[in-house]
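User: I'm preparing a small set of examples for a lab meeting where we compare how different chains pack in three dimensions. I only have the primary sequence for this one, and I'd like the structure in token form so I can line it up with the others. Please keep the answer compact; I'll paste it straight into my notes.
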Amino acid sequence: MHRLDEAQRPFDVAMVVIAALTWGTIGVAVGWLYRVAETNSLSIGFLRLLLSAPVLLITARLLAGPQAFRIQPRHRWTLALIGGAFAGYQVAYFAAIPYLGVAAAVLINICSAPIFTALLARVFLGERLQPSTWLAVGGAVLGAGLLVGGAPQVHSMSDLFIGAALALTAGFSYSLVVLGARLIAANYHPVVPVALSFALGALLLLPAALTTGLVIDYPPLGWFVLLYLSIVPTALAYALYVRGMRSVRATTAATITLLEPLGSALLAILLLGERFTATGMIGAALLIASIVVIARR
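Assistant: Understood. Below is the structure token output for the 297-residue chain.
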């Protein structure tokens, strides 16, 4: 915990900002993959985890030292939960994009995760929710409904419901990752659970990817995007984030990471030609306002 008189160093704040902006490119990169190759969310999710795992494991070893992977037996099931939840998050998130478009899928996914986390922490950790948090939950639900209803790239009601369900599943899965990481956070370097969850997630997705037809036939641009996903918004971004958190307060970091959904939505509009109706923009604003309330808490 930071002391009240401890200054937040501008360089560290910049590291957290860069990490958040980098995470915001994931959805657009996946959107490009769907455009340049005939692929599926399971293949993309598996390949990202597979290519990321070695880089993250090396990064964790460099940052955490020789004790990095000495896991206490009582934490193994928690790490298994984190790995399984992260694998599910990847697949659900990437699967929602063809149905809703990048901007709507990202906003619902990322903005619902803190809501689910707050509710799960209330149930399993006994954390008390303030009235403002309950108000934020209601605002997020209303915002998500307006957002998906105001995304013109949704072609049918079935696409809308399937895409929204997948995006919410991704948000719920990521909340399990956050909750599991919170349970063991005091015992390990922050990058260690991330690295292990990527490695375990790849192992868990391998049978499903092979059974359903793993897509490995990508053009050079497709492999470049996959490598980008595996290195830049993964190992590099997490390393920068952990570096910045040495002096950045948790509340400040939570607020800064709002740049991720905002940046991703903006890139989808600029690079992929996506758009929102006025209703969708109101929904997006409600979603973001809701997680601002929770982030400040």
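A couple of notes for your slides: The longest helix spans residues 157-184. The CA atoms of residues 25 and 126 lie 35 Å apart.

User: Perfect, thanks.
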